[in-house]
Design a protein that fits this description.
alpha/beta; 3 strands; 67% helix; three-stranded parallel beta sheet
């Protein structure tokens, strides 16, 4: 079974569009094990207002209960920084 993670922007769009978008996401990720990263969860909390926080709470709790919450380690961040630096050098940004 393939594992996938979704970008924060995908969750934001699904939350804004409601149940129809959630159904589309389920169809697109069918047969995959979807993981939520702690980084995406943090970004969702940062943008949540009022009742939206409860939705983010439930989302995070669901992934945590399923054992599919990915929390980057120091080495993950280090490797990400090196990769971004390499891309920046290669493509000039």
């Amino acid at each position: 079974m393939r594992a996938v993670t979704l970008d924060t922007s995908v969750y934001i769009e699904a939350l804004r569009r409601g149940e129809h978008a959630a159904a589309i996401l389920r169809k697109l990720t069918a047969g995959a094990r979807v993981w939520l990263t702690a980084v995406v969860l943090e970004e969702l909390y940062a943008g949540a207002r009022g009742g939206e926080r409860r939705v983010v709470d439930r989302l995070g709790s669901s992934f945590e209960r399923a054992g599919r919450l990915a929390v980057p380690t120091l080495d993950d961040w280090r490797q990400t920084g090196l990769l971004l630096a390499s891309l920046g050098e290669r493509y000039g940004y």
